[in-house]
Structure formats: C-alpha cells, structure tokens
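hey so i finally got around to running both of the ones u sent me last week. sorry it took forever, my laptop kept dying halfway thru and i had to restart like 3 times lol. anyway pasting them below in the order u listed, first the sequence line then the structure token line for each. didnt double check formatting much so if smth looks off just lmk and ill redo it

first one:
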Amino acid sequence: MRRILSISFVALALSACQPGDPNGGRVFLSVVGTPFLLALKIPVCAATIAVAAPLAGVSEISGPATPDGVDLRNNLGDGLGSNCGPPYVVNP
C-alpha cells in the first residue's frame, strides 16, 4: 500500500511539471493575490467610509441643493464604489 501511495505522489508531481495552460502564471497570481487584495481592501474601505460619511453629512447640512454639494456627494459615492466595490478577486 505504501508503495502504491508513493508512486501516486511521484506521478502527481511529474504531471505538474508538464506544460499546461499558457495563462497558468496569471491564474496562479490570481489565486495567490486574492487574499492579499481582500486583506488590503477591507481597511481601505473602512477608512473610506470613516472619511466619506461625515463629509456627506456636512455637505447635506451646509448646502443640499447647491451644485457643489451634489458634486461632492457624487464624488464620495464614486470613491466608495471604487474602494469598497468589486472586484473582490485578482483578475487573471
């Protein structure tokens, strides 16, 4: 049984050395990079929310109908979408 198991491991290791998909490196980078993306995206998103929420409140109180207030809220929304929205994986 031990011999069959060791032969299976050797065969598996050799099959990994065969040339495969030409995009294999990019797929590997996607698999390895995704946890780092998530680990960095969460604190950046939290910091964006911590800054954007008070600014949106102040802009609403100070001038809700002015073009500058609307523009500021639109830019804050775009920033939240950029920092907190997709992609949640590294694209290969």
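and the second one:
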Amino acid sequence: MIGQYVTYKGLTHIVVDETKDMCKLLNPLEGNKKLHVNKRNAALTDYRPAVVVAHKENDYIVTRLGNIISYATGRVMRWNDDHGMRQSILAKADKQLTV
C-alpha cells in the first residue's frame, strides 16, 4: 500500500508507511505532518501509485507531481530544482514509468 494515494476526511494523501491495521499518511503539499489512521478509514483513489526509486543505497517515493519523499523517514525532500540528487531521482522515476 506504500505509495498509493488515498482520501481521508476529504483530502488526498499518500501512504508512506503501514502496519497490519494502520497506515501513515502524508500530504506532500502540506509539509511533513503525518497522520496515523486505520486502513479502513482511508479510501484508495484512482490515481496512479507513486514510484519507488532506489538511489545511492536509499529508496525514495516519487509522487505524480514530482515530490520526492524519503522511504526511510517519510519526509518530503526539499531540494532545489537544480539539485543533483533531485534530478537523478526524477530521471530514474521517469525511466521506470516509460518501461
């Protein structure tokens, strides 16, 4: 379920972590605030899931809007558009989507 888009209380979030019954939600447009909710209360959307990209021994979740989230911490990476890591991760995500 990690990387899936869900709605919770009328807002769209992305799942960044999960356990048996719970999931951790993040709205990348609202910073790094996370919500812990029961999976029953989060409805899956029809959006294409985010892409998980491996880069330099770390994994990142890349959203459909080009936001990059650390898989390990669930935090949005706030790199400038010209940052080398950002460019490399987005290029890998694009490559995965075109395969």
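quick thing i noticed on the 2nd:
The chain has a mean pLDDT of 93.
anyway thats it, ttyl
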